[in-house]
Amino acid sequence: SLFSSQPSPARFLRDAPSACPSLWRWLPCPPAELRLDLVLSSGQSFRWWESSPGAWTGVLGGRVWTLRQDGDRLWYTVYAAKLNAAETERILRDYFQLDVGLSALYHAWGAADPLFRKVANDFPGVRVLRQDPVECLFSFICTSNNHISRITAMIERLCQAFGRRLCCLDSRPFHAFPSLSALTGADAEARLRALGFGYRAKFVSGSARAIAEGLGPEGLCQLRSAPYAEARRVLCALPGVGAKVADCVCLLSLDKAEAVPVDTHVWQIARQRYGVALGGKSLTPRAYQEIGDFFRELWGPRAGWAQAVSTPLPGTLVPPTPSYTHPIISPFQVLFCADLRKGQKPAGSQHQA
C-alpha cells in the first residue's frame, strides 16, 4: 500500500485540522449524507488510502488531498496547489455529489423495499462518486477477475509509470492519473504487461487508442448528456468493456444513476432475496438486463445508488466501524470485486496478475 501500516506522529499531526488550522477548510456534511470510511474504501475509486486513523489521502482532479470527518463537518486540505475556497468546495461537492439529498433517497428506497430498510441503518451515508470518465473507465477495465487490494496496487503502478508527478508526502510520490495520450504509445501494452497487468494490458492500450481515434476524451465526457442506453452502447464497443464495466462507468462517472451493475453476486441476491427467477445456470445478457430492469422498477431513477447500499453478501451485513488496522466490509465490494474474501487478504499476500 502507499502508506506504512502505522502512521508516523508527523503524519498524524499533519492529517489533523487542529494541528494546522490555517491549512484546512471545511464544509457542512452530516454522516447521514456521507460516510468517508464507507465510500472511499468501497471500490468505487482506487486512489484513496487511510493515511492515519480517520484521515483519507488521495488524488482528485490532479491534486493531492486529505479528507476527514468530524461531526457534521467534512474537513479537507490540498497539497502543493493554490486553490481558493470556492474552487475546492466546488470540486468536493461535485465529486461526492453533495447536492443530491441522500437521506430523502434512503427514506424513499426504504418505503419501496422492506429489505432495503433492514440494511440501511447499518450502512448510512453511502453515496455514489462522480469521477473523471477517463480515470473511471480505465480503472474498471482493470477490475476484471480482480479484487480491491490488487486493483489498487495496479492503478498505483499505472499512475507512477504513466502519470504526471504531483508531490511527495512522507517520501511517497503521488501522481496524476495518466492522460489518454500517455496510454496510446506504441510500447504502452508492453509496459503495462511488465507492470503486471496481464491480459488487461491489451484492453487498456486498445481502449485508449479507440477513444483517441474516435470520441476523444471530450466525447467521452459528453456521454454524460447522452441517454443511458446510448452511453452504454458506446462503452461496450471498447476493448475489454462488457456490460458490467460499462454500467460501473455509467454510474460512477457519466451521471447515469439508473445504471445497475450486475455480477454473479447481485444475480444471486436478486434470485435468493427478491425471488427474481431469471436465467439458468449462468448470468446471460437477457438475465442481466432483466435484473437491472427489476431493480430500476423497484428503486426508481437512482436505482444504481440504492443497489450500492442494499446488496452486501450474505454473512457480511455487519455495521462497519471506522478502523485503521482492520478492513471495512463495504457493500460496494459486492458490486465491484470479483471475490470479496480474496479482497480482504493483505495486499502483500497477492500475486501480480
From TrEMBL:
Q: Where in the cell is it found?
A: Nucleus matrix; Nucleus speckle; Nucleus, Nucleoplasm
**Could you tell me which residue ranges the HhH-GPD domain spans?**
142-308
Superkingdom in the source lineage: Eukaryota
Task: Mention one GO biological process in which this protein takes part, according to its record.
Answer: base-excision repair, AP site formation
Name the Enzyme Commission number(s) assigned to this protein.
4.2.99.18
What keywords would UniProt list here? DNA damage, DNA repair, Glycosidase, Hydrolase, Lyase, Multifunctional enzyme, Nucleus
Q: Which InterPro entries match?
A: DNA_glycosylase, HhH-GPD_domain, HhH_base_excis_C, OGG_N, Oxidative_DNA_repair_enzyme
* Reaction equation(s) it catalyzes: 2'-deoxyribonucleotide-(2'-deoxyribose 5'-phosphate)-2'-deoxyribonucleotide-DNA = a 3'-end 2'-deoxyribonucleotide-(2,3-dehydro-2,3-deoxyribose 5'-phosphate)-DNA + a 5'-end 5'-phospho-2'-deoxyribonucleoside-DNA + H(+)
* Molecular function terms from GO: 8-oxo-7,8-dihydroguanine DNA N-glycosylase activity; class I DNA-(apurinic or apyrimidinic site) endonuclease activity; damaged DNA binding
What is one GO cellular-component annotation here?
Answer: nuclear matrix
Q: What class of enzyme is it?
A: lyase
- Report the principal subcellular site: nucleus
Pfam family for this entry, one: HhH-GPD
Answer whether the UniProt record assigns the keyword Lyase to this protein. yes
**Belongs to which family?**
Belongs to the type-1 OGG1 family.
What does this gene product do?
DNA repair enzyme that incises DNA at 8-oxoG residues. Excises 7,8-dihydro-8-oxoguanine and 2,6-diamino-4-hydroxy-5-N-methylformamidopyrimidine (FAPY) from damaged DNA. Has a beta-lyase activity that nicks DNA 3' to the lesion.
The protein's name in its UniProt record? N-glycosylase/DNA lyase
Species in which this protein is naturally found: Zonotrichia albicollis (White-throated sparrow)
